[in-house]
Amino acid sequence: MLPAANRMRRSDEFARTFRRGTRRGTRRLVVHAATTDAGEPPRVGFVVSKAVGGAVVRNRVKRRLRAVLMHRVTDLLPGTLVVVRALPPSANATSAELERDVDGSLTSLGLRAKVVPAR
């Protein structure tokens, strides 16, 4: 489970990330990122709309994305806000595909404090 200190919950954090941040996307997802005070821990949020599928499918996608980010939140720079927005093709994606997409987006945004070796 993603630690409570690393979860984004407030709508103003989501709005700030979407408005002021940068983004990188793939066929399955878009990663939005913004920075805040360096003293704060990195925080992550997820957006999975009804366009992705029904409730069961959306929750499965969210679980997979949370699992991917749970292991990467320690690699993020302090003060980073990250929102992962799932697109409809993510409904049929495997965990490995989502992992590759998230890793590629985080790396291209330059958000990692340390690089995780590819599997």
Tell me about this structure.
This protein has a single domain (4-107), classed as Ribosomal Protein S5, domain 2, CATH 3.30.230. The model has no long low-confidence stretch (mean pLDDT 91). The protein is globular. 34% of the residues lie in helices and 20% in strands. The chain starts with 10 loop residues before the first helix and ends in a 10-residue tail after the last helix. With 119 residues, the protein is of the alpha+beta class. A four-stranded mixed sheet has the order 1-2-4-3, with helices on both faces. Its EC number is 3.1.26.5. It is an enzyme of class 3 (hydrolase). Belongs to the RnpA family. It catalyses: Endonucleolytic cleavage of RNA, removing 5'-extranucleotides from tRNA precursor.
Task: Provide tags for this entry.
119 residues; alpha+beta; Ribosomal Protein S5, domain 2; four-stranded mixed sheet; 4 strands; 34% helix; RNase_P; Ribonuclease P protein component; ribonuclease P activity
